Amino acid sequence: MTTPNYVTEPGGQVPVVASSDLVVVGGGPAGISAAVAGARNGLSVTLLERYPYLGGLASGGMVLVLDDMCDGPEVTVRGLCSEIIDRMTRMNLCVTPPESDWISDTAKFRQWARWGCYNFHSHQKPQPVCYASAFDPDGFKRAANDMVSEAGVNLRLHSWFSKPIVEDGAIKGVICETKSGRQAVLGKVVVDATGDLDVAAAAGSPHSLGSFIVTTVFRLGGIDTDEAERFEYEEPEAFSVLDREAKRIMGGSWERWWLKTPLPGIVWCNCPHMAGFDGLSVEHLTNADFKGRERIAELVSFIRAKMPGFKNAFVVDVAPQIGVRQSRLLEGEYVLTKEDVTARRHFEDSVARGRDYYYPYRTLLPKGVSQLLVAGRHYSSTAAAQRISREIPPCMAMGEATGVAAALSLQAGVPVDKVDVRKVQDTLRAQGADPGDRPSANATLEMAAAE
User: Fold this and answer.
1) CATH of 213-325 among 3.30.70, 1.20.140, 1.10.390, 1.10.287
2) Do the beta carbons of residue 274 and residue 288 sit within 8 Å?
3) Alpha carbon distance 101, 97 (integer Å)
4) Which is more confident, 1 or 120?
């Protein structure tokens, strides 16, 4: 069939600039994985990204620790996530504890805590060091570029999703806004990896709205991390006073508001946490950016004057993307609940895993629109479930699963909602991923059959 030169819409004709088997909208961690997995399994793939780089919240949002990918000593997220870690490590832009250090030990904890490489969820004291990786944002961009280029993906940056192209209930592609004007990209399967469910919502798929804290992540330079850690452990009472004040200034943060990076003297700060902002509102996002920078400036003045190790601190950069954790959530063929996550409920159609929770394929399938898949933090779940199951590595696992599913569906000549999930699982496993169809030996799980 000949690809049309134009797509007609009420405002006129939109030129078709690409036509592929698979179109992935969003070049964050989930979108990168979907595109690479699809291409490696034989599809022609176009990947669309609004920013001038790949990586989404991992790079542009500077969420610089990959975690939630192990259940005790068992590594639960492998595949393309492990590959990008390996690639960044070879660049000397990623640090991961060796397996020999994955223990609960005071000395090991002190060695790795400020890298963020420990099990935040464990009740052991000290919390065990685990498989987690601290990385550099530019390293993530470079590794992602290499993976996408080597796979032969047609990458189109600077392309802002505008609307889906839907005919007779099936998605046929998308229209983007660009500096060259509106452009159409056609595909046999589309993956919505936007993080905010932009494509599926605009196509009419049922969804809910949620909200959580947002963050203007930033990095500081000029830090004497050895002196800062000495102060923390040798003068704990004085440290506690200053640490509490730093957190008060920011208005909220995780337990450790600064963490090391692979670059000497550079730390990253996954804060300030700000509640009450709508991640879909221009006004709210603008206000959050302003307020975040105000808090950062106040914090820097305080730590330069008071905090050992920080007297020469300066702001290296503030993440170009604000850290939105929750906005639209798909209401797909199955909606994952908080109880599913906390009970470690296993599903026979699981195609991806997080730390100790599972994603059934049905949570990636929108209702009401065929040939559309979803991968990322906007997958089908309740707001309470999403808050504890939305980390970057499992989002990459979801993306990898959608790329494989798209390839197998087109090879079999069946819609994506009719693909043989067992073949998806087998293919993922053969390619080094863990689809989660074999439940962890560490968990007591309630089996839930796919309907």
Assistant:
1) 3.30.70
2) yes
3) 6
4) 120
